[in-house]
Structure formats: structure tokens, C-alpha cells
Amino acid sequence: MTPRAWFRCIDGCPGEIPLTDVVYRCPSCGALLEVAHDLDALRQRSPSGWTRLFDERYKRTTWPYGSGVWGKKEWVAPHVDDDNVVSLDEGGTNLFWAERYGGQLGLDELWVKQCGNSHTGSFKDLGMTVLVSTVKQMIARGAPIRAVACASTGDTSAAVAAYCAVAGIPAVVILPRDKVSTAQLVQPLANGALVLSLDTDFDGCMAMVKRLADEPGIYLANSMNSLRVEGQKTVSIEIVQQFDWEVPDWVIIPGGNLGNTGALGAGFLMLHQLGVIDRLPRIVVAQAERANPLYRAFERGLDHLEPVAAQSTLATAIQIGNPVSYEKAARVLRRFDGLVEQASEDELAQAAARADRTGLFTDPHTGVALAVLEKLVARGTIGRRDRTVVVSTANGLKFPEFKIRYHEGALIGIGDRYANRPVLLPADYDAVRDAALSGVDGRDLAPRMHTDPSTVREVGAPRGR
Q1: CB of 186 closer than 8 Å to CB of 157
Q2: Closest C-alpha among 304, 161, 307, 128 to residue 230
Q3: Mean pLDDT over residues 447-464, rounded?
Q4: What is the pLDDT of residue 452?
Q5: What is the pLDDT of residues 4-27, one digit of tens each?
Q6: Sequence ranges of the domains in the chain
Q7: Helix and strand numbers, DSSP H then E, in the chain
Q8: What is the CATH number that goes with domain 95-120+229-412+449-455?
């Protein structure tokens, strides 16, 4: 078996384009590209053979297969030599059984895929390891690449900067001024990237970096580059692997530029095409009400995308009005009987805080997905016994201002139902004792609803637990 992959046009134009070519759209029609794999070659190994191989590699030490991405190298990037892999042990993130939060919502099986438990704190690491490894291989073979560049609302820039720093490749990141958190801004600065802060929004930054990528030697790292999707699709594969190769009923993911939606679908489809799974889950894309072009298109039947002027939202990473990967996302929604729902600023803030009260520490974008989950459960769309996974895309530690302002009651127009403020006391034991004892006795924690173990479908102990 010799695995092989190439770029192809998503609209069906003929031809194969090498993955090491600098190309982002079909040269014939201008449509987006996708990575295609030689499935006949991959079928020479049985489904059980693939699952056994992937389980044997999972989080082990043999380079580079311990990575959650590179452990599935044949399905992702067979074109990259092991010596050119740039890995920070991405993937392998916790699949957290949100038992208490799910119980409050009336769900027996709610799981949160913690993609933010990664080197730079977001799912973007999964795609960037493939992209930067490919660039390193291209440079090793004489390609005149001067720098890797991206537009970003924070997470992509962090991943580009970190992986390029490891590889010794210059990085240029273009950010919308005052629209990323302090934690996100400091990441590319610390890793030595050239940071260009523009007085515009993400869509304006994206327009700039697409023009910059036309310059000789500048390689584009945004999700319109399909190499990103190849790494990110391992989220789907890993979720199934962590359920001992069983498929969840629902997967909910925040949607901004929509590359991750395409990636999620690509992973599940590959599992299905190669016989590892016999059905597909339903996929839900969650959008912020203030940046909701996909939701509006879905309400019209996904006939076309009408870009919007994205308004300011707490969910800054998905504050995108003109997503470049709309066509891929629409195709996934049709194939997976998918849904799109939106969440208001108050809904996302309350959902994030409520989940935090049960042990999570959510970013605002995951808050959007959780708010949409709560809506779908309340409507009866998602049932009590449906195994449901929410994809948490980033680490809550990247957004301390969001957390602090919520608990201070300082978010304008947003309630603080779950706010928790420190009690200020003198250094006096009696005062401490009285406050501690009365505070514990009167603590306002949402009650834990018992889940009957007999209602939870048995699987082997998920690796995330």
C-alpha cells in the first residue's frame, strides 16, 4: 500500500494538483480546493486493521506517530517525510463527559471535546502542523518560500507563529486592532512573528492577506488553504476513536470562517468511506447572532451566501461576515442533515458561565455552541438519550477579560445570573469563619441531576475520561 493525496477542485474540474504546489483555488474555475486521497490504496488495509494501527500509535513515543494528527498520517498527509514533520504533540485532547452540566439540561450523554487543551490553546494547531510541515518540505526541496502569512482573530496567528518558530520559518500575521484578547495578541509576539495590527475587522484583514499571498514567496495559512482542513479533520476521527470507534448522534461546533465545519465533515466521511463507521452523525453549526451569514443562508435553504457586516461580539474568533469556506460548509450541512442555529450575546455568556459552574472553563465561542445546544434540547430536537458532542475550539484562559467582566457584571446588556464575586474581608479569623461557613451552607450551585447508569450506552472507558 502506497498512500497518496492531492488537491482537487470541489466543483469537479478534472486534474490532480500536487500538495506541494502553491495554489489555493482551482486554476480552471476559481472554486475552493480539497485534499483527495487514494481510497482504493487505503482499502488494502481493513477497517479493523486501521483502528488497531491508530490505537497502537495513540499518544505513544515513536516519532511522529504519537501526535493525534500524525498518528493518522496515511489519512492526512502521506506526502510529508517524517524528517520534515513539525509537531508539538497536537491532538489527543480530552473528550470530557460533562455529566453534571448535561444532567441539568436533561441529557444522559453530553461530551465536550476539549480542543483548546493544545500547545497554543486552540484547534488551529491540528491544521497548522500539516501546513507548516508541508512548507518545511517544500523549502527543503528548493521552493523559494520567504514567509507564512495569515489573517486572524487570534487563534490562527498563535498557531502560525508557534509552528513557524519551531521550523525556523518567518511568519507574518495580520490582526484586527483591538479585536483580539491580550492573551491572543501576546502569543505571536512572543514567538517572534511579524504582527501587523490593522484598523479593520477580520474580513478586512483577510482581504489584505489574500493580496499579500500573491506576492512571490508568501505562503497563505488561512483555511482557504485546504492543507489546514486535513489536520483539523482528525477531530472527527479522534472523537470516534475515543468512543471505541462508535459514532455520536450529534456534533455541535462554533462556526466563523467555516473551515472547521468542512474539516469535521471530511473526517467523518473518510471514516465512512473506509468502512470504519456505518453511519454519519448530524452536525450543527453554531453562530453568534451578530455574525451570522451561515445562519441566514441556512434559513434560505443554503441557496447562496450573502456576506454581512459582522457586528462586535464577545465571540471574537467567529466575528466573520464573509466566510471563505462557505461552499464546503454548505456541502457538509446537506450531506449530514445538518442544522445551523444562532445565539445572542446574553445567551452565549450565560451558557458559558453555567457550564463553568460544573467544572468547565469555556471560551466565548464554545459558549455559542453551548447556547445552541440548550436551545435544541429545549425544543426536543436533541433527545435525552442522544450521544452529543460539543466541540470546544479554544482554551478559556485565552479570554480572561470575558470571564472577569462577566463575573463583575460589567458586560453591557448582559445579565450575570451565574456571577461569582470575591468576598472582601479583613484579616480576622472570626470574619473568615463566619463568611466561610455561611457561604458554604448558602452556596447557590445548580443541583446535580443523577444519571441512571443503565441509560448510558456502554463503551470502553473513553480516553478523555
Answers
A1: no
A2: 128
A3: 44
A4: 47
A5: 999 999 999 999 999 999 999 999
A6: 95-120+229-412+449-455
A7: 17, 12
A8: 3.40.50.1100
